[in-house]
Amino acid sequence: MCSTFFFGTLVISAAVTSGFDLNNFDQLNAAKKSPDKKIVIKNLLVPAGKTLDLTGLQSNTVIEFTGRVTFGYQEWEGTLIELKGKNITVLGKPGHLLDGEGQRWWDGKGGNGGKKKPKFIRVSLVDSTVTGLHIKNSPRHCFMIKSSENLRVQNTTIDIKDGAKHGGHNTDGFGVSSSRNVTISNSEVYNQDDCFATTSGSDTIFENAKCVGGHGISIGSMGSGNVVERVVIRNCRVLANTNGIRIKTRKEETGAVRNVTFENIEIKDISKYGIIIQGNYYNSGPRGDPTPFPIENLVIKNVRGHVARSGTNIFVWVAPGSAINWFWNTKITGGLKEQQCKGVPNDQTSRCGKK
């Protein structure tokens, strides 16, 4: 397509790149080598058991999703979409949909048995942006960020509402690991597991999010020597989740949580815990007394809202000496189930485990 500009009697034609239209999976390799470095993915069907492999991209590539992208059905444990590169721009155009049709795999077991289920999208991006993606019905874990640096993900919708009635499980929203300087902003997540979780890395921001139906916003589960540090979670709403915010470390494992801030978090209709910090986490439930695991310079500021009567407002159970330099300012009400907190710093003033 050309645009024509008139300056007196001089006519200048400027070429405008439309990009490589990828609507046939067999053209994927050609699209990645396109000299104009723009891939427009339109109404694409990815064959069963295959990955939309957007790795090995040329630097400064632009990827646009338009129309509906779907995936053939097969029981497998791969990833439906992979993105990897430097200086990459990913755009979801108005009206597009990345549709995992996860109901074909859901059986209430997630990654704990039953059908083998693929994860949805994994990104390893440097100096890049991802904007405006609309994702529906991931078979299990949805948006995994790994080995990324200087990445901004914004205006994302993860819609797995259907999983609540049709066996969705382990449908985690965002997961960040082994990354630095990642910001996730202005997202909506409807799912059946963590809205956001980070298990390793530094300088992470999760902000301006709406989380509905899942397990809350999490640090961890932590172990295997991993460290999470300099994380800010702010200006979020956590609605109808099992937990509001939580930190979970695994017994007899090593690692550290340092310089984490939860600020301006509204919770509402939480069924189990408004805030929970536990040092003996297992998927199947806590086992025995926690072992030491440092959680240092933790700020929980203006975390407020409501827990169901059958739940607990605040619960902490960590090994003595694990909690170092905590600052809390919370107002959480509603939960009538009292549990005795253990390992809380002596200067902690929150009504831990109280009504």
TrEMBL record:
<feature type="signal peptide">
    <location>
        <begin position="1"/>
        <end position="19"/>
    </location>
</feature>
<keyword id="KW-0378">Hydrolase</keyword>
<dbReference type="Pfam" id="PF00295">
    <property type="entry name" value="Glyco_hydro_28"/>
</dbReference>
<protein>
    <recommendedName>
        <fullName>endo-polygalacturonase</fullName>
        <ecNumber>3.2.1.15</ecNumber>
    </recommendedName>
</protein>
<comment type="similarity">
    <text>Belongs to the glycosyl hydrolase 28 family.</text>
</comment>
<keyword id="KW-0326">Glycosidase</keyword>
<dbReference type="InterPro" id="IPR050434">
    <property type="entry name" value="Glycosyl_hydrlase_28"/>
</dbReference>
<dbReference type="InterPro" id="IPR012334">
    <property type="entry name" value="Pectin_lyas_fold"/>
</dbReference>
<keyword id="KW-1015">Disulfide bond</keyword>
<keyword id="KW-0732">Signal</keyword>
<dbReference type="InterPro" id="IPR011050">
    <property type="entry name" value="Pectin_lyase_fold/virulence"/>
</dbReference>
<dbReference type="InterPro" id="IPR006626">
    <property type="entry name" value="PbH1"/>
</dbReference>
<dbReference type="GO" id="GO:0004650">
    <property type="term" value="F:polygalacturonase activity"/>
</dbReference>
<dbReference type="GO" id="GO:0071555">
    <property type="term" value="P:cell wall organization"/>
</dbReference>
<keyword id="KW-0961">Cell wall biogenesis/degradation</keyword>
<keyword id="KW-0677">Repeat</keyword>
<dbReference type="InterPro" id="IPR000743">
    <property type="entry name" value="Glyco_hydro_28"/>
</dbReference>
<feature type="active site">
    <location>
        <position position="215"/>
    </location>
</feature>
<dbReference type="GO" id="GO:0005576">
    <property type="term" value="C:extracellular region"/>
</dbReference>
<dbReference type="GO" id="GO:0045490">
    <property type="term" value="P:pectin catabolic process"/>
</dbReference>
